[in-house]
Specification:
This protein has helices at 3-14, 33-55, 57-63, 65-78, 93-98, 107-123, 134-138, 165-173, 205-215, 227-236, and strands at 148-151, 156-161, 186-192, 198-203, 242-245. It is mostly helical. The protein has two domains: 1-124, no CATH class; 128-250, no CATH class. It has a three-stranded antiparallel beta sheet. The chain has a two-stranded antiparallel ribbon with strand order 1-5. The protein starts with a helix and ends in a 5-residue tail after the last strand. Residues 5-97 form the Putative DNA-binding domain. Pfam families: DUF2063. This is DUF2063 domain-containing protein.
């Protein structure tokens, strides 16, 4: 058997797709090939579960370790890692949690997982050390203002939810969880700092929509939000770090 075939069989066996690989596992007096395979399976599942628990540590805290480990095992078996870098594994875990009937009355669980995945991605982003130069903005001719295309640093990501996950997150990290009504929308910009901290910047819906449209590449003439009220706040919160002037699309 070729090495790639052996590896493919072993990978499939880890996910309980078949036990064919046992023919290639050496038997001893004390351990059968199937028992040895089960050791490999358990070790693999535990390792990937531990990786998920690191990414989704607050989600795990909300549901408890036993339940988290159980649903993680089911998620892993149905969504096996597709690459060797386990640090990138876990996308879609929140969607899986949202399908569980046990969590139907607790939508904030899946939303917390979605937030934590975004938190993880933001922590891995490169930090652009670039400040917005307001003096350059003042030099733009009035007839070109609608063609302005603002820029947002790569270390900024956006999160919105109909559950107040920002409040819940702050309570968890402060170890001061109290009974609260989480059925309130939250709009947040996550910004990685040079010291690797993730700053959570609260926004209202209009500020969030404006920033979302800017990230999508819309010029000032194309955005559908009141610029006079919301743009100065985004600048004040240092969520915009530059601009270009596009050619007139007419």
């Amino acid at each position: 058997m070729k090495l790639n075939q052996l590896q493919a069989q072993f990978s499939a066996a880890l996910f309980y797709q078949h036990d064919n690989i046992t023919d290639a596992i050496k038997e001893t007096q004390s351990v059968t090939p199937l028992q040895r395979l089960q050791v490999y399976r358990n070790s693999f599942i535990m390792g990937v579960t531990e990786a998920l628990a690191i990414t989704y540590q607050h989600t795990s805290a909300l549901v408890g370790e036993e339940f988290f480990n159980s649903v993680s095992r089911a998620f892993i078996l149905n969504n096996p890692p597709l690459e060797n870098n386990i640090m990138t594994y876990g996308l879609g875990f929140n969607e899986y949690l949202a399908t569980l009937p046990q969590l139907t009355e607790m939508p904030y669980i899946a939303e917390m997982a979605r937030f934590e995945w975004l938190l993880e991605q933001t922590s891995n982003a490169e930090v652009e050390d670039k400040q917005f130069d307001t003096t350059q903005l003042a030099l733009v001719p009035e007839n070109q203002l609608n063609q302005l295309l603002f820029q947002v640093a790569t270390q900024i990501t956006l999160f919105d939810s109909q559950q107040n996950i920002s409040q819940l997150y702050q309570m968890i990290i402060a170890d001061a969880v109290v009974e609260s009504d989480l059925n309130n929308a939250c709009y947040v910009a996550l910004k990685k700092q040079p010291d690797f901290r993730i700053e959570l910047i609260s926004l209202n819906q209009q500020q969030f929509l404006l920033l979302q449209q800017i990230i999508a590449g819309k010029t000032l003439g194309e955005v559908s939000v009141d610029l006079h009220q919301q743009l100065p706040i985004l600048l004040e919160k240092q969520l915009i770090n530059g601009f270009t002037i596009t050619k007139d699309k007419r």
